[in-house]
Structure formats: C-alpha cells, structure tokens
Write a structure and sequence with these properties.
This is Fungal-type protein kinase domain-containing protein. The protein is α+β, with helices and mostly antiparallel strands. It folds into 2 domains: 47 residues, no CATH class; 94 residues, no CATH class. Helix content is 18%, strand content 36%. It is built from 3 helices and 9 strands; from the N terminus they run E-E-E-E-H-E-E-E-E-E-H-H. It has a 5-stranded antiparallel β-sheet with strand order 5-6-7-8-9, with no helix packed on it.
C-alpha cells in the first residue's frame, strides 16, 4: 500500500494464524514484527488497547502524510501537495509521475519524482506557471540532503579543472 499511494508514510498490521497473533509496523526505514503470542492467553486489555488505539487514531498517527491530499480530476486520481511558507501555504498538484521506481522497495528512501503545477486558492491550476519537478523522498536522519552533497562535490572539484567524471554522470 505504501508504494501505491504517495500519502502513505507508514502502516500497521495484524496477522492471526490459528491462535497466534503478531502485530506489524512498517515504514520506509524499518519493519517491526512482534513475537507471536496466543491471543486467548494474553491479557485482553492489551488487545483492546491496541485496537482502540488504531480505531481512534487520526490519519497522521496511522501513517498518512497530512500535507498530501488525494483529489479526483475528471476520472483521474491526482495528489495535491501543500507547502507551508512564510508567505502562506502553496498547493501544487501532481500532473505526471516522472519516476517512482525507488518507491517499489519495502524499505529505503522511497523516492518518487513528479511533475507538478501550482494551484490557485480556488483550486484551479495556474495556467501561466511553468511545471515544477517535485522530488519526494525520505532520508536517514544522519544523512546529508542532496543539495549539501552536491555543494561538497562542486567544492571538492573547484580549482582541479577535472570535471570529466561529473559531466559524464550528468552533474
């Protein structure tokens, strides 16, 4: 479900086999699975607490990204992405998937690249605006952003005159 829907950041699950039960949690960073337990023997308040927590959780707590909304345009499903800025919120609508190959992996950065267009307050696309390429990915907390990495690569090559490797790879 996480690779098919750009709004999904994490998901919970339960598997039951005979009298054995497991709880699951997965996100792009990790998948956690509880030890199997006999749900007839375990204290029932733990099961009730778990299912009530899921039943009364808000969308964000259930792993949905609150900044992305699913919308229908004609017969096509699209996504609106809200960006909070100092000047106010901007909304971009995904008009085309450029790449979502990396989103197929169960764990990892889940990178997707979209073509988006700016939307007006009334919900219409800005016809005069140039399309914007939007990259959606998750990175480890100890990993530098790509712009920082690129700046370091350029800084390391400044003054050497050796740009052949960078030109060949498209940088």
């Amino acid at each position: 479900i996480m690779r098919n829907d750009a709004r999904r950041r994490a998901t919970f699950g339960v598997t039951i086999e005979n009298t054995q039960m497991n709880f699951w949690f997965t996100c792009m960073a990790i998948t956690l699975v509880s030890k199997p337990f006999n749900f007839f023997v375990v204290r029932s308040e733990h099961l009730i607490y778990f299912f009530c927590s899921l039943a009364f959780a808000n969308d964000n707590e259930l792993g949905w990204d609150p900044t992305i909304q699913r919308v229908c345009v004609g017969c096509t499903v699209r996504y609106d992405i809200t960006v909070c800025t100092d000047e106010g919120d901007l909304v971009y609508q995904i008009t085309r998937v450029i790449s979502d190959f990396s989103a197929d992996a169960l764990t990892g950065c889940g990178t997707r690249v979209f073509e988006t267009c700016l939307k007006l307050q009334d919900g219409k696309l800005v016809k005069t605006a140039e399309p914007v390429v939007w990259k959606d990915s998750r990175r480890d907390c100890n990993q530098d952003r790509e712009d920082i990495i690129f700046k370091q690569i350029y800084a390391d090559h400044q003054g050497t005159g050796n740009w052949s490797g960078l030109v060949r790879t498209g940088l």
